[in-house]
Predict the 3D structure of the following.
Amino acid sequence: MTKIKKEKTGCFFYTKSIKMLSSTISSLNFPARTKLSSPNPAIFPQNYNLVPFCTENMASSPLSGGLINSRVDLPIAICCKNASVDSANSGFSTLMEYMGKGGVDVGDDLVLLFGHLEYASKKIAALVASPFNSSLNNNVAIGNTGTSSDRDKPKPLDIVSNEIILSSLRNSGKVAVMASEEDECPVWITDDGPFVVVMDPLDGSRNIDASIPTGTIFGIYRRLVEIDHLPVEEKALLNCLQSGSKLVAAAYVLYSSATILCASFGSGTHAFTLDHTTGDFLMTHPNINIPPRGQIYSVNDARYFDWPEGLKQYIDTIRQGKGQHPKKYSARYICSLVADFHRTLLYGGVAMNPRNHLRLVYEANPLSFLVEKAGGRGSDGKNRILSIQPVKLHQRLPLFLGSWEDIEELQSYGDVQQKVNPGYDV
């Protein structure tokens, strides 16, 4: 193959180099379709094939400089069999199709609500990927931040994301009340909305300038019609303080190298990846089953010396391969709850924060719902998360999420909740 000369003039390669690249690519003869004979399930789910990626009208591409005009077939693109072209053979392709009458049939109201949540998620995905988000983070917070002593100080991107979602929920006409990690009190939207939405609009935004993955977390309940007679403030709060066991649906959206919406409607946990060419969330991970045991733990173990003895002993044991699983565990910690949880859901193990830091209503309940529907467990170190009755809107607690056997082994050490909470300045 001809070697490309990498001399530059300004910020463009020499025209001669680009012409050579065009000629070289055009001369290659790729097969019409390249299929993995035995896909590695750890990399490609069974519903993936490798197929040629076709590019047309390359003259319009900013990377080509208007010099590559031929059609190029590159056998490197990943295509999901569940895409609409194959929907007759492989089931549901988009989130909306899966939720509809041909799928789990969750009802028109919930389908419409998720359509608006989809729209909000796509706007937030564009926001966090924007080159202007750094300047937004450095500006004065937008709107009423509503901070209090027992909540993290919100940043502008959190507030913008919060407003995007609130606007979408208003437009849906299907939500009676919304409670957000960014607001002191619930927001009553409409009297006849059938649903209640609780959310963390932008988890992990503290580190967004470093391009660390961020996420949005949703929990959805039915409106408690039996308390409709109460004053607005009271019924708004009571609707949002429902036990996690009453969740109708839960979801998170991961904003990373791909935008992934992972949801459960009470039967299984499924992940849908945003196809930027169509704007659809396509099912890429149907019926996620978290392994019964993993080999990864996720925690900020720089705080090791603040931990209780039971947690220290557990971590020391699994790191040495002396626990119930005879292999040494690896540490993986992103410091973004959605990202750490997403990896744990796919690979197994345990993601945790042992101190009273994470919020029961906005984070612990929705994520515990999702992990349970995938065959795992959510615990505060002693109790099942979904069995805990919230008593405050911004109530905090320790959180341990992951594989069934890993959580069971962790709890067997007894003293795993970090009672000493000195606070950590970042």
In short: The first strand starts at residue 8 and ends at 9. The CA atoms of residues 98 and 198 lie 23 Å apart. The first helix runs from residue 15 to 27. The radius of gyration is 24 Å.
